[in-house]
């Protein structure tokens, strides 16, 4: 358990420290959007690209937020509890979060398979075949905006983010188990 915790925490910590600078990328895109609308012809790509960067910032930064316990929490009751009671409560609630993330990950896999042009019954095996190059990719989904970017890259970011969040939640689950056993984390 400790090896899993160290590995997942290291990956999410490094990625979170990199992704946190994505806010500056977002600010640059929005600044260019304002400048181009004021002085030049408006750029078609700025609004949608800002949305994509924000999705990446939020989804890939989520595991780091969970790791650092920086998410919003109502401490009205929780703050006064003992460490053991907090560990029990966290252990139970993280199970619900793991289930929710598994459903989100499955939906993201289906959506990504669809955006790569697959419309049949087994999208996960299709994605595996695409990765190893065993099957031809169909018509790629594009956004309906004027810019018309392909949708699969942002959906792949969502898959990565949900998977890393799932791993981080499993890490938190194992940390709570160790705390309940009275062992150091």
From TrEMBL:
Keywords: Cell inner membrane, Cell membrane, Membrane, Transmembrane, Transmembrane helix, Transport
Residue intervals of the Tripartite ATP-independent periplasmic transporters DctQ component domain: 26-177
Keyword Zinc: no
Main location: membrane
Subcellular localization(s) per the UniProt record: Cell inner membrane
Subunit structure: The complex comprises the extracytoplasmic solute receptor protein and the two transmembrane proteins.
Family listed: Belongs to the TRAP transporter small permease family.
PANTHER family hit by this protein: 2,3-DIKETO-L-GULONATE TRAP TRANSPORTER SMALL PERMEASE PROTEIN YIAM, SLL1102 PROTEIN
Function: Part of the tripartite ATP-independent periplasmic (TRAP) transport system.
Record protein name field: TRAP transporter small permease protein
């Amino acid at each position: 358990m400790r090896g899993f915790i160290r590995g997942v925490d290291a990956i999410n910590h490094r990625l979170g420290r990199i992704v946190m600078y994505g806010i500056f990328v977002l600010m640059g895109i929005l600044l260019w959007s304002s400048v181009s609308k004021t002085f030049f012809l408006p750029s078609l790509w700025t609004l949608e690209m800002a949305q994509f960067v924000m999705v990446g910032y939020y989804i890939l930064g989520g595991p780091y937020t969970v790791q650092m316990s920086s998410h919003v929490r109502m401490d009205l009751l929780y703050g006064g509890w003992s460490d053991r009671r907090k560990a029990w409560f966290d252990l139970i609630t993280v199970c619900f979060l793991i289930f929710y993330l598994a459903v989100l990950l499955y939906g993201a896999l289906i959506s990504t398979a669809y955006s790569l042009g697959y419309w049949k019954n087994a999208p996960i095996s299709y994605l595996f075949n695409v990765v190893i190059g065993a099957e031809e990719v169909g018509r790629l989904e594009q956004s309906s905006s004027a810019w018309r970017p392909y949708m699969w890259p942002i959906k792949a970011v969502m898959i990565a983010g949900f998977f890393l969040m799932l791993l981080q939640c499993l890490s938190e689950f194992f940390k709570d188990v160790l705390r309940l056993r009275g062992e150091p984390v």
